[in-house]
């Protein structure tokens, strides 16, 4: 039927992970045209896909529900080229980006606007369903959101996972603004640099934590008013101006203790990343007597992305692109991310 157009799409390629670990490279396969979408699915021709540290966590096999073999990638953008008969919101030609996953729309979490906590989600890009390291991606329409036609492909692909994740985390205890002091760890990375830009734009005083002196100028350019260079986990001892109201921790276990001890009484710690497998050690007495709030935060909701897109429309984001690589260098891209020291995101172009 006309709604299912797209089966005539050209053949393409995809990256494939067949086993967890780093001993073997990601494979690159030639694939045929995507089949016509069913029910509420759409087919998207991918223009770009970001490479996130979560992709490295996926590859390490740290998620027990990883389904192999699988095409990695959870942050892609492109054009809708086919729609299933049950699709109601998206049309052919729409420019869209991926959420981290779909959502059911009816559970209590979805009804209160916490779609990223939907326990009925079945389509998790790069983990339970094929991701964006490919020429095309097919998924339920609720796994996508609309993008402006004039947004650059690299920013379009990574907007949800970087700016969306940063915005949701920064807003967990209410949007920061003038008079608030916000500390961001891993501030040179994709989410971290986006968080610096957003927090500064909202009027907060931003303290950026980086491991290397050569990243200090970069995060200052993003909007940090203070930069703390530390690779020992002791940055809480180096803060100028006293403790902070909010910490957005993009690193996890290596920075967790110092993040807690950077907070004022009653302050809030939002954890959005964990780059190592080690568990944190938490002094509960310190958290209790200090009245600290500790919360985890994951991908942005559709409502979050509406607000992020409004911020971009008011003044376009200055996305930090570390490198743009062809799809056949997907393995190299992941190894670069794993090695660390990047400034912003790497994107793959099919």
Could you give a quick summary of the protein structure above?
The protein is of the alpha/beta class. It is 25% helix and 25% strand.
Q: Topology of this protein?
A:
Elements: E1 12-16, E2 27-31, E3 41-51, H1 53-59, E4 76-83, E5 95-98, H2 108-111, E6 136-140, E7 144-146, H3 153-158, H4 160-170, E8 181-185, H5 190-201, E9 205-210, H6 216-222, E10 226-229, E11 244-249, H7 253-261, E12 263-271, H8 284-290, E13 293-296, H9 302-314, E14 321-326, H10 330-339, E15 345-349
Helix pairs in contact: 4-5
Structure characteristics:
350 residues; alpha/beta; seven-stranded mixed β-sheet; six-stranded parallel β-sheet; 10 helices; 25% helix; globular; disordered N terminus
Question: What this model shows, in words?
Answer:
The chain is built from 10 helices and 15 strands. It has 350 residues and is an alpha/beta fold. Strands 3, 4, 5, 6, 7, 14 and 15 form a 7-stranded mixed sheet that branches. Helix 4 (160-170) crosses helix 5 (190-201). The radius of gyration is 20 Å and the shape is globular. Mean pLDDT is 94; it is low at 1-9.
- Our Rg estimate from Cα atoms comes to 20 Å
The run of helices and strands is: EEEHEEHEEHHEHEHEEHEHEHEHE
Reported for the largest beta sheet, the result is: 7 strands, mixed
Instruction: Specify the overall morphology.
Output: globular
Number of helical stretches of at least 4 residues: 10
Query: How much is the average pLDDT?
Result: 94
Gap between N and C termini, in Å? 28 Å
Unreliably modeled segments: 1-9
Query: Can you give the helix content as a percent range?
Result: 10-25%
Number of strands: 15
- Class by SSE composition: alpha/beta
Strand composition percent: 15-25%
